[in-house]
Fold this sequence. Notes:
- The chain folds into two domains: 3-215, P-loop containing nucleotide triphosphate hydrolases (Rossmann fold, 3-Layer(aba) Sandwich), CATH 3.40.50; 220-288, no CATH class.
- The chain contains ten helices and 14 strands.
- The protein has helices at 40-47, 65-68, 70-74, 91-101, 106-119, 135-147, 165-178, 215-219, 236-240, 277-284, and strands at residues 3-11, 16-25, 28-33, 55-60, 63-64, 76-79, 153-157, 183-188, 200-205, 208-213, 226-231, 244-250, 256-261, 271-272.
- The strands form three sheets. It has a six-stranded mixed β-sheet with strand order 6-7-8-3-9-10, with helices on both faces. Strands 2-1-4-5 form a four-stranded antiparallel β-sheet. It has a four-stranded antiparallel β-sheet with strand order 12-13-11-14.
- Helix 4 (91-101) crosses helix 5.
Amino acid sequence: MKLEICSLTKQYKDKTAVNNVSCNIYPGVWGLLGANGAGKTTLMRMIAGIMKPTSGRILYDGIEISILNEAYRNIFGYLPQEFGFYPEFTVTDYLKYIAALKGLTKNNTKVKIDELLQILTLTEVRKKKISKLSGGMKRRVGIAQALLNDPEVLILDEPTSGLDPGERVRFRNLISEFAKNRIVLISTHIVSDVEYIATCNTIMKDGQIISKGTTEELVKSVEGKVWNSIIQPKQLLKYEKQSCIVNIKNEEDGNISIRYLSNTPYIPNSKSSDPKLEDLYLWLFPQDYTRKENF
Length: 295
């Protein structure tokens, strides 16, 4: 089982959204990381077969997906950033509708829907209209429809948007188990979604893949650039202007612990810290920096 992306390019009138991307994807969880506008969604829409590339090819087990056509759709699951539904659909009605589109039998449909509703803790809202659900519940319905046909290739675009921390943990456990002998590609800028479960992470920037590897391999590029230090509160504003402070924590003695990214430890009494995937992400995309409250 292999998904091949060969010299893929998507050109709009005045912008190249995806620029000559090539990558071979094998069974397991693959994280696609990048800031908003990096080209992730465009790439995933082309892999899903709902957007034609300007040039390049996508092959599944050696055959172009455009030739496979319906055979590819039958083994494919896709969760876009925003999935559409009729306002009057209940959760069950919507999943039955999608199951019919995917060619599931009546018996298989009932079994699969019951199973997914239980796994995704949606059983109690199965008769509710999707339009009345919270954002997190709607997202879980979207995940359910992507899994209905037990796909060999599963593409998830920002799947945990709107999910609370507990739901994110359950999602990661579900996907990690599901990915055995299947290809799962997750596009996200929430690094924790893929940090520990990804077989491989691919990083996109300005429409190109700039780095690829396991979490352990990727974080090596920021070794020696992650530091911890203790500062006084009045010093925080000064140091925020000089570096990317990724975590702060108020200490009992009134001082502040900070974790920051820098080529050199310019803050007094700094100590080197083991890098995480989030550190690499913020090193590459400092505009996405968000201050954290705790380490």
